[in-house]
Every structure is written in C-alpha cells, then in structure tokens.
Amino acid sequence: MEAKMVIARSGYLQKLIDRKHNGLVKIVTGIRRCGKSYLLFTLFKQHLLSSGVPEDRIIQIQLDDRQNKALRNPDACDEFVRSRIGEGQHYVLLDEVQMMPEFEDVLNGFLHIENLDTYVTGSNSKFLSTDIITEFRGRGDEVRVPPLSFAEYHAAINENWDDDWNNYATYGGLPYVALLKADNDKAAYLQRLFTETYLRDIIERNKVKNDGELSDLVDIVASAIGSLTNPQKLENAFKTVKRVAISAPTIKKYLGYLEEAFIITPSKRYDVKGRKHISTPLKYYFEDIGLRNARLNFRQQEETHILENILFNELIVRGFQVDVGIVDITKGGQRKRVEIDFVANQGSRRYYLQSAFALPDAEKRAQEERPLLAVGDSFKKIIVVGSNVKLSRDENGVVTIGLKEFLLNPDSLDL
Fold it and tell me: Any bridge partners for residue 94, and if so which?
C-alpha cells in the first residue's frame, strides 16, 4: 500500500459543493482525525481552484495549528478575515472553530459580508447542538463527516476483500490509519490518539477532575458494544469490575461528553407495535471500530459485535435514524420480548435488519427470522450475513444478503 493513495470522500465533497453561496455557515462536524480538514482544505479547496477561484480569495485558518494561536482571539480572527476581503467572491475556511471563544459572534458577522462564503469545522457536537442552534437560528448548515465507511476504505486500499475487511474490522476507518502499513503502527497510533487527543480534549473542555473514572468508563462501554445498558447498570459494573463507586449521574454526564466528542453513538429501543421509544436501557456503538478495539488492546475481537457496530455505522452513514427494535412473540404459550438489531428509518422509508455473522443451519435462520416475522407490517426485512452468501428471498419475504454486497452496493437495502 502506498502513502500517496487518494481517499476521494466524493459524497461529502458534493454536499459542500451543493451548499455553496446558500447564505448559511457551512459546518463540517465529526470526530477529530476523521478527515474534516482534508475534506475542506484539500478537496474543497481544489474544487474552488478548479472552478476558477483565485487562490488569494480563499482565506484559510487552522485554529489547532499553534502558529495561528493569536487568531483564536475572536477579534483578531475577525480583523484578519475582513482585512483580506476585496472585490469578488471570497471564501473563508476555518478549522476547529470551537477553539475560538465567542465564535458565534464572529460567524454571525461573516454572514453580513455579501461576498464571503463561510465554511468551518468542529469536533464537538455540543457547540453545534446548543450554541449554533441558539445563536444562528437556522443560519448554520451541518455536513456530518464520519470516519471512512468500508466502501470508501476498500476503494482507497483496493486490495482483496478478505484482507481489507479484516484490517477494517480490526483497525477501523480513520484515514491516517489506512495509510499506515504495519499493524503495530496502526495499533500504536489509535491508542495514542484516544488518550492524547480525544480523552485530553474531553477532560480539558469539560474540566473533568477524575480522568481515571472517565478512562475506565470508556473501557467498560467498549467491552459491551451491542449490549443494553444505562448509567445504573454501568454504576454496578464499576463496583463489580473496577471495585470503585461512581454515581449514575456522574456516569450519565461522562457518557454525554463521549457523545459530544462523536466517540460513541447511542441507539434507543423502539417498541415496534407500540410505536414508541423506550428511553432506557439503550445500546452504545463506537464511531470507529478501530478506536474501540484499541481501547481494549485488541483483546476482545468478537466477530458478532464488531459486525453489528460496523453495520450500525453504515446505516448512519446512509442517512438513517437507527433504533433497536423490540417486539413481543408468543412461544410455547408464553409471551416473550425479543430484539430486532436495527430499525432504520429515513422519512417514510423503514427497514428491519438482523446482523448475523453466520447462518450455519435452519435453526439459526429461524432464530434470526422470528423477531422479523413478528412485526406484522409490510416494511422490508433483511438479514445481513457475515459470509458472502448469495442474495435470496424466502417464502416469508425475508431477504438474506452477504456482507460484501451489503456494504459495497449503496442500493443494497432495496435489492
């Protein structure tokens, strides 16, 4: 694999292109090191230059670069940008905007400059979900960028399916990891990144006093991906596993910090027939499976849970809201509540999906199908199998699709 490989990220680039000159601040959000800066400062800048925009009309500020420390001052940044605007259309590209106090006022001011189109990146959802919505009142336009999907990773690496899948399922989809050749380099990078960047950012931003508690919580959540949990259960886990007492409210606060930093994503339970969400317990999935594996020193490589996490992320990338389905079935005269791995919703579209690493026999197939058949509606039911089985549809209308086809075909939900 050569370090010069190109990762296109064409879908996210097109989203930025489609939003040009729309009178809003374009906000590129996502976990740190997922490729936001590359998207904005390389791919989007190349688009602007190839569209005939002179380079001196593209104003670039990367606030996480120490050389630009002075520009973290909002007045200095505002003056710097305004001093470079002349005749014609200009573009400002501002990286890691959350590092600048009062950035809302600065960006609001940029909106009043008619010949300036503003693009910013941010690595913390809190500034988007609270400050931006409150201060901008609809004047911010978010483009959410995750780590590489498997399809993006496979297209960039372009090796055989098995090798690419094994590497992706182990080391994830952060772009820099994809460039590294040696496994030990990938592992070391992920472990350093988690401790020195993600956790340090959370601790400094939120003034966390006991960083050991936060670190331990990450490990416990990482070891339980795909399992139902809540702060109370995690409090009990701390007592059992770590022999320490941390209150449920503190755990809830820490989980919020991890969500805001885009490290984990919750999936709520949804009562399919009752048509309502059940707030607790819920499941947590990692934004990048490599980061999760790195936190556990690559010890817990359970193929079923890793597959489930990757499929959850794939559905999120495709623009779906993803819940854990709950449905009641009657077996042996007794009522039993069972799970559907994913209920994926997008507008009027809905899909029910089961993640199965393998379907070795009819009993296992029946086990996976049982919750799907209990739903009783006409939305599509799908079983995604880890092996590359041939696409099929049985007499109950349940579609079975292999992992390779599901991940590499953007229309696989509708096959």
Answer: 61, 120
The domain spans of the chain are 10-144, 157-302, 321-414
pLDDT single digits (tens) 288-320: 999 999 999 998 788 999 999 999 999 999 999
The answer to whether 47 and 139 have CB atoms below 8 angstroms apart is: no
pLDDT in tens, 219-257: 999 999 989 999 999 999 888 877 788 999 999 999 999
Right CATH number for 157-302 from 2.170.120.30, 3.40.1190.20, 1.10.10.10, 3.40.50.80? 1.10.10.10
- Residue 130 CB neighbours (<10 A): 11
Q: Which residues contact 221 (CB under 8 A, 6 or more apart)?
A: 229, 234, 255, 258, 264, 284
Domain 10-144, CATH: 3.40.50.300
Q: Point out which residues pair with 140 in neighbouring strands.
A: 25
This prediction has a pTM of 0.93
